[in-house]
Structure formats: structure tokens, C-alpha cells
Amino acid sequence: MIFEKNGIDDSYITFYDLSRSTIHRFELPFLSGKYIRGSSHGWLILEHDYRLSLLNPISRTSIELPSFRDVSTNLVVGYKRKWSESFDETSGYKRCIQKVILSSNPSEPGCVVVARFKSLNRPLRYCRIDDSSWTKLQADVGHINNPLLLPLWDFIFQNNLVFTMNYNGEVTIYDLENLSVKKFASRLNLISSRYNLVQGVGESGGPLVVKHSVDSEKPSFSVYEWVNNGEAKWCQVKNIGKRVFFIDLPKPIPALSSTNLQLENWQGNQICYHAWCTMTSKYFQIDINCVNLESGKDVENIHSPTDEFPTKSGATLWLTPSLI
């Protein structure tokens, strides 16, 4: 799914259908003036004027979340340079959100929203749908250039717990019910690698991490499941069954989206990823690839869109098959 702006009406959104290799455009007036910061449980997360909104693009239901203007003074855009996709030269608004996840469908009771703000220490904050403010989840953990203080790399919900990993692969688990915090040294070798946290399957299962190399032109993948049955650690998984992982490769910054799906018309045990193949100040294209996890070989009949989309989008997002 590609959000288009600059040059066309920004109330339009484009979906690319991988199964049929077709592009569909829809008019959603609620999108106008907002920036897509991710998707979770089939809902889009939109940022605008120091607020977040949730939008179901099929039912067109929207939910407004609390303002974060009171914490925005502590936020920065980039470290020593401006992220080009974080600043709107027309409105002067600096986008503050890097990634957002939901604990469940927001139309159901008890949904929790966790957002990662852009700052030197990349803090997490959370709120429930009816809250009037955001609550800080993660303590300050320092700057990426300080080797003694390792910032957050990625985070995910799993069985009502928030799992995070830092740049050293260490795992922290937050329980939002009793506000307890547990930390583990994962002993996962991440040299010359980047990774995405992906939601696991089942109530007893832990989250998964997709590790991919960054020292070659074509990434290679391995998958690990978090197991905590006496000794908390990552255990490698070579077969994820009929499921397909759709991931954003976090290059050069951590990913915005990772999704675990089971699709009837796709063979399982696959990892599907995308990369920018052409990008200018006026348009971009993306290249979609898919590999079999066990063999490491490319999956045939996976087609990338041939269209050139105007300007760089805020994100390329993978959504669930059913958005209702």
C-alpha cells in the first residue's frame, strides 16, 4: 500500500495487489493532510498536528488518540541531520512518530497503542483508546553513538506483553497490566545483521525475530523464536509452516512494518520483503522479493509494480487480508 502526496490529491491512496499484480486507488478524504506512520491489525496509523488517528480504510471508521504536543519539545528529527521524510516544507510540521503497533483491533475493548517517538533515546509511550494522555513506557536509554547506552531497535506486542530489542539484541518485556519489567541477555549474534520482530503464532508462543545479513547485496534470512521455559533465549526456526512473513528491511533505520500472515493462494514458509529500486526527488519504484526460508531460494511468480509513484512515500505497508 502506497500513500501518495505532492503533485496529486493526498486524499487518495494506492493498494498494490500481489496476487493479481494490479494497482487500485481509493479516495479517502480523511487522509488529507495526514501522514501514514504504519499499519496494525488492518488499521492505518496517521500522524497530524501532534496527534495520531486510526483509520480502517474499508469501513472508513476513524478513532482519534490523545495529543502528544506536551512531549514534542523533547523530540528531534534525526541526529545531526534532517531526515528528508520527516519534514514537511509546506506546513513546517516535523513528524515525531517512527512506528506504532496495536495490541488488538481498536474497535474491540481494551486496545492499547504503543508508539515509538523520534528522539535521541527513542522512547516508547502508550495509551488506551479512551485515555487523555500518553504514558512513558521505556526509560531513557541513551544515544546510539554511546556504546554504553544501547537504544531500542524494534518492538512488538505478543500475548498482551510488549517485547523490545536493543542494538545489542537484549530483550526487555513490559507487562502493561502490572507494570512489571523483565530484561534478558538474548545471546543472539547480530554482527553484520539487522532484524525485525514479528508476532508469533498461538497464545503460548513467543515473538519471532527475522535476522537478515547486511554485508551482501542480496539479504539472507534466518528466523528465531523467543522461548522462556526456564532459560529465556532465541531458538532458530527453519520452518514457519504455511505462513508468510512480510517485512520492511530496516535500512538505514529500523522498520515500520512486519506482518505474519497465512494466505490461501501462497505457499508457506516464505519471507517477502521490499526494497527501493529507484528513487528521485519526484518519483520512486519498489522491488518486491520473496524467498523460501528453508532453501533460501527465490520464490517465482512474485511480481513487483512497474509504476513510478510520485515522490517518496511515508511508508510502504503490508496489511491483513481482511480489514473489516
From TrEMBL:
Domain of life from the UniProt record: Eukaryota
User: Which InterPro entries does this entry report, sorted A to Z?
Assistant: F-box_BR-signaling, KIB1-4_b-propeller
Record domain KIB1-4 beta-propeller: where: 15-273
| UniProt name for this protein | KIB1-4 beta-propeller domain-containing protein
What's the source species for this entry? Rhynchospora breviuscula
